[in-house]
Write a structure and sequence with these properties.
- With 169 residues, the chain is mainly alpha-helical.
- The protein folds into 2 domains: 72 residues; 71 residues.
- Helix 1 runs antiparallel to helix 2.
- The relative contact order is 0.09.
């Protein structure tokens, strides 16, 4: 059985690029279908939920710029739509790091609170309210993960900061 990751004489970067491009094409088709579903469902709650899915899908498109970056790496070019490849500044302040850590912790706590509310709201509006709260909890978990990534990236960059030369007296 062949999988998406089978060699087939193509580099892993080229396979990954093809998978991402295929996913982007599939997402565009799904978005058109979601728009039709939202309009045709005849149900305001279903239309609202479809709109939430569409908002997420639309936010994914900038992330798919990775495919352009992968193509650049393969072809040794630089596309204007590619993700930036610059390193973060090495002079990130302790205040920025603490604030980023605080945001990550707040998102973690918020996800727990939202999950608890979702459990208690399971009977409201046929479960829709619980679904929305659970979805918000997952978003908070995603936000926490992003904040922790940023914190690690900035912390690592700060550790690479060159030591200051002793001042001449």
């Amino acid at each position: 059985m062949t999988t998406l990751w089978d060699d087939g004489g193509v580099s892993s970067v080229e396979r990954l690029q093809a998978i991402i491009e295929s996913h982007a094409t599939g997402e565009e088709e799904h978005m058109a279908g979601y728009r039709r579903l939202g309009k045709l469902s005849g149900d305001l709650v279903s239309a609202m939920l479809v709109d939430l899915v569409l908002e997420d899908e639309e936010r994914h498109h900038p992330l798919l710029r990775m495919a352009a970056r992968l193509g650049d790496d393969i072809e040794m070019t630089r596309s204007t739509s590619a993700l930036p490849s610059t390193a973060p500044p090495t002079d990130t302040s302790a205040t920025i790091l603490a604030l980023t850590r605080e945001y990550a912790e707040d998102e973690h706590k918020g996800a727990g609170i939202l999950r608890d509310l979702a459990k208690h709201a399971s009977g409201l509006y046929g479960g829709v309210f619980s679904l929305l709260l659970e979805t918000m909890a997952r978003d908070s978990e995603k936000h926490e993960r992003i904040m922790r990534f940023i914190l690690q990236r900035l912390s690592d960059s700060r550790r690479r900061q060159p030591a200051l030369a002793p001042s001449a007296v």
